[in-house]
Amino acid sequence: MDRPSSTPPSLHMAMAAFFGASLMALSAFYIHKRSVDQVLRRLIEIRRAQSRSSRPQREQEELYGGDDDDEYDGDGLREFGSDGGGTAVALRDYPRSSSTSMDGNGHRSYGISSSLPNVAVTTEWFEEDDKFEQSVGYEAQARASSLDNLNFVASGLPSLRKDQRDRENAQLSCSYKRIASLGRIMTPRSPSRNTFESAEDSDEEGPGLENDDCIPFYPGNTESSDNYGVNTNICSLSAVPIRGDDAKCANSETLREAKTGADIQHDGKTGSTSVNLVGNGLTFSNTVLPPRIAGQEFANTEEEEVCKMLCECLNLRKKYVYREEVPPWKAKPLAKNSDPYHFDPVEPSSHDFRMEDGVVHVYASKNDSEELFPVANSTEFFTDMHYILKVMSNGNVRSACYHRLRFLEEKFRLHLLLNADREFLAQKSAPHRDFYNIRKVDTHIHHSACMNQKHLLRFIKSKLKKEPDEVVIFRDGKYMTLKEVFESLDLTGYDLNVDLLDVHADKSTFHRFDKFNLKYNPCGQSRLREIFLKQDNLIQGRFLAEVTKEVLSDLEASKYQMAEYRISVYGRKQSEWDQLASWFVNNSLYSENAIWLIQLPRLYNVYKNMGTATSFQNILDNVFIPLFEATVNPNSHPQLHLFLMQVVGFDLVDDESKPERRPTKHMPTPAEWTNEFNPAYSYYLYYCYANLYTLNKLRESKGMTTIKLRPHCGEAGDVDHLAAALLLCHNISHGIILRKTPVLQYLYYLAQIGLLMSPLSNNSLFLDYHRNPMPMFFQRGLNVSLSTDDPLQIHLTKEPLLEEYSVAAKVWKFSACDLCEIARNSVYQSGFSHEAKAHWLGDKYYLRGSKGNDIHKTNVPNLRISFRHETWKEEMQYIYAGEAIFPEDVDP
Ligand SMILES: *[C@@H]1O[C@H](CO)[C@@H](O)[C@H](O)[C@H]1NC(C)=O
Ligand SMILES: *[C@@H]1O[C@H](CO)[C@@H](O)[C@H](O)[C@H]1NC(C)=O
Ligand SMILES: *[C@@H]1O[C@H](CO)[C@@H](O)[C@H](O)[C@H]1NC(C)=O
Ligand SMILES: *[C@@H]1O[C@H](CO)[C@@H](O)[C@H](O)[C@H]1NC(C)=O
Ligand SMILES: *[C@@H]1O[C@H](CO)[C@@H](O)[C@H](O)[C@H]1NC(C)=O
Ligand SMILES: CC(=O)N[C@H]1CO[C@H](CO)[C@@H](O)[C@@H]1O
Ligand SMILES: [Zn+2]
């Protein structure tokens, strides 16, 4: 554990009081403008009717908007559907949604369905006074008077100063926003202070908090402002201990008071969470924003149903995703060969396997008929997928998830306000480590585009100079040397430059050639691609191997950067695997800093048209049968066996935006799939999943490494893809479509599915960069990392991964702590071995929460990690109604 926390919990009380007081003051200003009778009357009624929760809890809920239930005004979500989402609309929504949120308490106590916004009240308010400031005034009055009822004494507060900037700030007065701006004032300047001001440009959100450098509610609070602007009066009133690192402190009056309600109703669990929380040095205490506490009753049956549905989705994921029975940190380490490509004959096992309905089934022996590793069949999968789709389209669930996500986002901001300096200090005091010498994994990079343009150009020139007479290609009926190829293209080594390489080669070859361009292009630079960027050409991929080696040695030179390269297997013939493996072994391509994933382009329709495949089953056979053969009897494919030890994942690639039909529950089997259309993404995904699942079970039982499913998903196209991936995949690449579906986004958060995002890559060229949801995802706590995708096409510098981090840091104002956290995530998401991760992240990296963090390795403060962990636990408790079970270790 690093530095103990020292923010007094009293800060929260102080904030609360300040907040209340300033609202009072604001309402005083507005009070002559509008009558508040209606509001008051209503509030008093609510108060009388309320019997649900204990008083202090309610205080806080009201104070902070109590926004964590599922009513919503109907407008906030509309923007999720549309791509654009004007800021004007969003702006208009803020006052409205905040008034409903207050109103929400009313719904609860009256037992009115909370999914129906109380239109009468809200629109009445809103239509009467179109102007923001007036509606703000209302809200302020309402809140202030509710505070009044709770005997908040706002004595000795400075009088309100109002100016233009006040009003601007007030316009943004969604209840959380206001907290954010308040807190911001109290935090001294620090490098990470503005981290996310610009992050608000994302599609679904309204305007940013650009203006809150001003101090609207605190004119000259000099006497009360020590480091954090804590008012000493309030401090002594609440009698909260100053230091938070002592677990006993958590038992202070206020904390206990705030908790009693929950504790009495239920077991003691909650009490201990809060103690832990403080013990962890987390200054962001539960008491600020009361979470749904363990076992707390749901406000109404609808909320309960929403949570049940979400639980169901998470449980479905548990049912599908392959997990090792013995996680790697408990298993005995695999024997490591000093020469990674040295083959020792291995005794074959007696396993038998048969392809049945597109899925390989494994039997203990030829005569056995009992399947060893049964996997869910396709009917079952598509049924479950449809269930997820149904949940996704449910209005109640959508609004609930939307609210939770907003809540998470604001909670993170509040955390930053309170703790940014502490985090910064912790980082400073960790010796030696900084952003440059922590481990970063490039989690998503296509091998055929892994060198940058300049590198490739230099390589081509040097080959032209050194080996002009090498016969490199068979074209148009004759063998050609490198020199002749360039002559046929009317190019000399001197002519070549990056622009030429790009411009001319772009359209048919270099441009997205990772997607595998099958079109034969007799004239033009498809020859260059064939010669330099293919491994199954006349020179047996020698050039590609050489340039790959250069890339690998660059990688090793940088020491702290690792990469996971994706290399294609097309499924056109069964020998592809052996060829690929022998290319690796012959050229001894190996690096401690690199591991490999296999990518399968979804091109069935192309092969079908070309006549290479007759049914979808052919592709599955070609891709999976060799893997099973090499696993059961490594001697049959010695090189493949060795190569598979370096392969950690399986990827599906191709343009996701191509239209496709949503699969029904009963789909034809792959052998029956003989039409010329490409199957849907989820169809591909299921069959890859099912075969990999059986393969991994088999490999694990034989003590071999496993291959995880980590496809490209959510780059474009339907949300179906993401729903299928939720059930089947470990991690996904991109995932930017998640911004359109709050339900899946929330589920991805809860399941902590890794998102390997590449904001610079094609689909978000610089103009779109601003709209990339990455910073929003990061704030909300989704498990994101940065990766390069295609350095050849995108990046300009020698260190593309750092370029990616650097642009993100500049555009989105990520602080050093944020960057280190993202880098840490990238190691977790990667498929590197347990030993490597333990070396890079710390011996106990597999423990959840701050126990698993070692700031001396990761440079991420424990404060940040425990904030993420506690926040996630609270969300899980909320969804599981306090019954969530948290394993000690992370998911393997
Ligand atoms: C399988 O059955 C055949 C005949 O039924 C028998 O000869 C053979 O020994 C059996 N093999 C195993 C592995 O049990
Ligand atoms: C799929 O599995 C379910 C339950 O496991 C079973 O009821 C169903 O018959 C199976 N369908 C097929 C086509 O095998
Ligand atoms: C690898 O080397 C072996 C033996 O030298 C050769 O037969 C095979 O074709 C080579 N494969 C590749 C892809 O270079
Ligand atoms: C790459 O960018 C082009 C042009 O903006 C776009 O048409 C294409 O769909 C993008 N590719 C992907 C995979 O998003
Ligand atoms: C991402 O997942 C890893 C492993 O489960 C965890 O340690 C890390 O804290 C997560 N990151 C975020 C931002 O939640
Ligand atoms: C949430 C999840 O399953 N994350 C996984 C992402 O992939 C890596 C590598 O396979 C796993 O270690 C993580 O557990
Ligand atoms: Zn990619």
**Unreliable residue stretches:** 1-9, 28-33, 51-289, 503-524
For CATH, the homologous superfamily of the largest domain is named as: Metal-dependent hydrolases
Largest sheet: 5 strands, parallel
What is the terminal separation in angstroms? 24 Å
Q: What is the total domain count?
A: 2
**Strand order in the sheet with the most strands:** 3-6-7-8-9
Strand content: 5-15%
> Using DSSP, what is the number of strands?
13
Shape: globular
**Percent of residues in helical segments?**
40-55%
CATH domain class of the largest domain: Alpha Beta
> Do you know the CATH architecture of the largest domain?
Alpha-Beta Barrel
- Quick check: average pLDDT? 72
Q: How many individual helices?
A: 35
Heterogens: 2-acetamido-2-deoxy-beta-D-glucopyranose, zinc ion
Description:
This protein is α/β, with parallel strands linked by helices and 892 residues long. 48% of the residues lie in helices and 7% in strands. It has 35 helices and 13 strands. The strands form four sheets. A five-stranded parallel β-sheet has the order 3-6-7-8-9. Strands 10-11-12-13 form a four-stranded parallel β-sheet. A hairpin with a 2-residue loop joins strand 4 (471-475) and strand 5. The structure holds 2-acetamido-2-deoxy-beta-D-glucopyranose (6 copies) and zinc ion. Residues 365-367 line the site of one 2-acetamido-2-deoxy-beta-D-glucopyranose.
Short description:
This is AMP deaminase. The active site is at 734 (proton acceptor). Helices cover 48% and strands 7% of the residues.
